[in-house]
Structure formats: C-alpha cells, structure tokens
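Could you help me review a protein record that somebody else here produced? What it holds is a sequence and that sequence's fold in token form. I have pasted the whole thing underneath without changing anything:
=====
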Amino acid sequence: MRNNRGNIVKRLCLCCLLAAMAVLSVAGSSWAEEAQKQPPTLAEAAPPAASGQQGVVLGQHTGVVTPQETAKQPAAAEATVQRQQPPSVASNPEAGKAREAQALFEESLRQMMPLNEGQIQEYRERSDQRERALLPVSPALNSRTVRVALEPGGAPVKVFTTANIATSLVFHDSTGQPWPVTSVTNGGPNYFQVLRPDLPDGNLLNVMPTQGYGTSTIVVTLEKRDIPLVIRLESDSVRSPKRKADALVLFQLAHYGPKASVPIIENIKETADSAMLAFLDRVPPQEAARVRMEPAQEKVNVWKYNGKHYIRTSHTMMWPAWTAVVNGAGNVKCYEAPVTARVMFSVNGRIQTIILKDSPK
C-alpha cells in the first residue's frame, strides 16, 4: 500500500517537471525571435575584446576604442537618429519622388534651353545682322527727262533696270502733252518683261527685268509717227554691290504730237539743253543758287545760274520776256530769263507778281 502511494507521487512529480520544461522551451523560442527582430545596441554590436583585453573587469571603461567600434559608431548613431525622427520625416516616398521629378525637370530645361536672357538677346541680334547681310543691296534710283528726236542716226537711249524694281517710261511731245504708244516690240522677252497699262492717254510703259546682267532693246511706235523710238534696256544682278536703276524716265520728243497744244506766240524759241532739263527735273547743277520769293509759291521754283534766272512753274509767265523755254510733263515749263527783281504770272486768269531776292550765302 505504501509502495503504491510512493509510485504515484513520483509519477506526479515527473509530469510536473516535464510540463515546466515544455513551458520554458516555448518561452525561450519566443524570446529568441523577439531578440532577432530588434536591432542590436552599441554594446551588443561591439565585437569581443582582443586577447590583450581579457583581463578587463566587466562594467569598467578602459578608454580604448577599437577600429571596428570607430567604424560602426556613425552607422549606429544614424540608425538611432532615424528611430527618433517622426515617421513622416524619416521615410516619405512621395516627397522623395516629387523632389526627384523636379530635379529631372530642371535638368531637362537646362539641356533644352541652356542660354540665359542675355545670350538669347545677343543671338537674336546676330541673326538679324545675318539676315540683313543676306538681303540684296538697295539700289540707287533715279528719275530723269530725256530729250529725243525721232530721226535716223541717233543712238538708242539707255535705260537702267535692276531686280525687284519696276521702271516706268513716259512719252510726251515738245509741248508736254502725252504721246500715245501704238505698239511695243520686246527684243529680249527672256530678260525683260514689258507691260503697257490700259490708260486713256496710252503713253506709259513699265519694264521689269527677269534675269541679271541682261541687255536688250524695245521698239516703241508712237501714234502718227513713222520712225519708231528704240530704247536699250540694261539690267544688273541682285548680288551686285552697287545697284542703280531708273525709276522714271520721261521721254520728251522734239516734235508736236497728236495732242499738242500749239503756243499762241509762234516765234518762241524752245531750247532743251542739259541745264534746262536739269532744272525741269528739279535736279539743278551744283553751281545754281536758289532764289527766294515773296510771297512763297508752291508751284514756282527759281534758280540763278550763269547770270540768268531759270524759272520752273506750271503757270504761264507774262513778264519779263524769256529767252528760252522747255516743256515738261504735267503742263510744267522751265523758262530762261534775264536776272530781274520781279516776275509776273497768269494764275487762274489773274496777274500775280512775285518779288525775287537772292538767298543769303
């Protein structure tokens, strides 16, 4: 009986011991898992002391730091700082992506537009200068009156043209009236284009060159005139450094045309020398001096040249008696008269007196 009780007690103790050992085993495994999840502290991360440090007493600071400890201390400190920072600052992937995208955008701008404001302005100025240099040189345009006699033996009149410029040819008789053109023959259609506008008077031709450095002639037939007028056309290149062209050429023929206004005084001498034609074109010789008028007149111009007065006007001159006269387009005349202190004109049926005074030098 006693032996049976002792066996029962032994069995109960053995069962309790086995249960306790099972509990300790489960608790130990849980503690090991938690220890692995937590980062090591500075003391745990330190390697074991060298053989020379085996005699150091635990808990006492020796003051000697090994190289391994020196290398690992900044990393451990950084990890500690990161653990102390708030989660929004320590790790924010959205903010990092935004900063990276902004950096990429700014770098793209620098690559696509590397110039600053000053460099862009300088580039524009250089480009403008280059475009101006590539443009053709502006030609020197001229307007003149040419006195022509339709008689054999005369040389053709030269008319200068240039690219992108239209030249007008106008034909008048000796009285300044339009002389209609009946036909035009173009000798070089591949070099020049000749147009005749449909006008009531029909005395205008427009000439435009189609190629550079071209030479040709046109034959102009005038109304009720057997002998035609031959004109020589010349053109230069658009790349020529010195371009010149006739913008307007007034051909005044030394004959009465079909629309001529016959003068009342028949014995008036009509002289068309180079000086009078220059005054008629308002391009007087350099030696000519302008004469002041009182009162000033818009349609009257007076010059003093070689001891004579040259008067350009559209009015009829009444006094003094002139020595020569030349008619221009638009009823304009140029009178040659002796030097005088006053002149008289017929303006709209009334006599008007103008006082002449030399311009101060």
Notes: The first helix runs from residue 2 to 37.
